[in-house]
Amino acid sequence: MPLQGFDHVVLTVADIDATIAFYVDALGMEPVTFGGGRRALAFGRNKINLHRAGQEFEPKALRPTPGSADLCLVTDDALETVIARLAAHGVPIEEGPVDRTGALGPIRSV
Predict the structure, then answer these.
(1) Alpha-carbon distance 14 to 78, whole Å?
(2) pTM of the model
């Protein structure tokens, strides 16, 4: 069974509106509403579905907890451009730039 990638990822969050505002403003994702008013974020061919903690949709993770996921997003922009955009939106960089091993090989990350 050769897998080809993700269809979507689900993030459990404390505040869906605040989450959408961050990902739209700081990272340029597109907000999406689908199936009965559910909310998500789209970018490229990818989608992040959002569940509000305590009001998750079924099926869900066994112990959904806000902030319990790490995402590594890839861009063609120069790392300096990414750092400047994050700074412009008041997003602190916790670590980096650092070398990491990505899904397809070595990457530089913040």
Answers:
(1) 31
(2) 0.79
